Amino acid sequence: MTRFFSRCKPARKVGWTLLGIGLLLALPQAQTRARDTGQRIDYREMSRILSRFDPGIDHMHLHFQHMQSYPFQPMRNRYRYSYGSVHTQKSMIEDAGSSLSGVLVLANAQLYDDDQAKPRIDRYVQDIHVGHECPVALETIEGGSPESLKALIREYYAAGLSGVVLIGRLPAAWFEVPNDHYWWEGGYGYANWTCDLFFMDLDGQWEDRDGNGIYDFHTQGLGDRGPEIFIGRIDASTMGSYGTEVELLARYLDKDHTYWAGDLEFQNYGLVYTDHDWANTSTYYFRNLYGLGHYDALKWQDSLDNRVYKQDYLDLRLPDTFYGFTQIWTHAAYTHHSFHMGGDCYESEVNSRNPRSLGYNINGCHACDWAAGLGNYFLGGGYIFNHSPSSLAVVGTTKVGGMLGFESFYQSLGENHCLGTAFLDWFADRLHSSEEYGFILGWHYGMVLIGDPLIAFRRVPGVSTQETMEAMPSNFSCRREENRSLFTREYLNILSWDSPPSAVVSPVSHYCLYEFVSNALVHIADIPAGTNRYLQRNAEDRLYRYGITAVNTSGHESSCVWAVYEND
Ligand SMILES: [Ca+2]
Ligand SMILES: [Ca+2]
Predict the structure, then answer these.
(1) How far, in Å, is the centroid of ligand 2 from the Cα of 454?
(2) How is the chain split into domains, by residue range?
(3) Tens digit of each residue's pLDDT (9 = 90 or more) over 42-53
(4) Domain 255-451: top CATH class
(5) Could you tell me the pTM of the whole model?
(6) CA torsion 167→171→177→182, rounded to 10°?
(7) ∠ CA(452), CA(445), CA(59), 5° rounding?
């Protein structure tokens, strides 16, 4: 911990890089927790599905336009300050489940000079330092190539680094292949894309063999291809259609701060929303995040009951604050989701609905292809650079493909690791898997994290909630019965649950029963300990989302366990 702090000094000149690499080689691969989940993925079938879709957009042409607009310049970096590891009052209360060894924040120097942006960037650095109780350093960057930026990141990595946050416009690395998805019917043809894996893999070898400024080979070099750190991009300059960069960044960092202050209410309940072409894939992996029964798994279905279509997504899913994390799986381009039913759902429509989940996994080609947007907008950006008070981060891709092999991602999130760590864990799992390397490259090399990578989705790191999993009721369920007599007929919602395990420190005093309606948690009843059943009379023909907590004799309330009921 302290090594990171002591390394972060402005004087780093000749010889430092060699020293850094030496240290790097000596360090164990401690940051990456690759998990072999043993799952096999039918990458060929997935490529077949992708090949059916043509958005009619020439992403490659847009990429070349982007490259011409932003030529590389020599880099000037300036060390600003760092916070070392300190023991805050919060750290005495609870281990928030974070175990980061250090975070480096790199901000565009011109942006940092702005008097609206600077205090907010400083506050962000402070927030993540306190939240994760890990060292955080801030440097500002002018110009720069991906290589010079990576060299700087490497120096920090040598001293202990878990991840990097890039704020504002900063260099991007590009990757190209002559024939993407070559294994599927002749392939998709030439492709290039921005590739943040370049900054995540610090010991593999990256080569541009034809010397056109775009990487085309990635081998293990002296290390491996897998990532060692995570990267997150907070770049509001990609969303120029919606305001100035400073305005958009300020608004984003303000809502992000409410998260870190513990003032953003969110529920431990998820949504996995899967369109037609993947309707037969399992979404069981999603249980890893909030638990079995703690997510809506909506899949397109060929019946009148189908709920997966454009207007349902826009009107009912995006504005719903019941969802703490959402995964959406549709065909896409940088401009829109393409739903099987209801048609195209444009970035502007997503943006204007103010998406309310804290985080999104957007599975769809080019959804996070910010370069294609030429500074105007892109789909992934529309999810977070908007007026929503809660939407903070997106994982998606800058090329065709997206995430597959989800288990490691949601396992990591379920352990309340931050999004960056989960993204790193997932990427490491894919790159260390026994799948054909071509599949990994074609499907995953564009994966990118847009927004704050330090947020977690079960609870805010560093903010005490005084609760543990063990203190929560379990097996909470709702069933319906008809109560019929000669003169009346009514329906009852019968709620039941099990007490928390007796191993809990303080005994339960009572349970609090809530219903989540109209984006708010409404208290229904207090139920004394010893009673594990509740009847709600005159139940209506609608959706019910019940939450129950256990309050112990010390007055601490557990987080909610959910039971969702809807009459078919
Ligand atoms: Ca090249
Ligand atoms: Ca590596």
Answers:
(1) 21
(2) 255-451, 469-566
(3) 999 999 999 889
(4) alpha beta
(5) 0.91
(6) 0
(7) 90
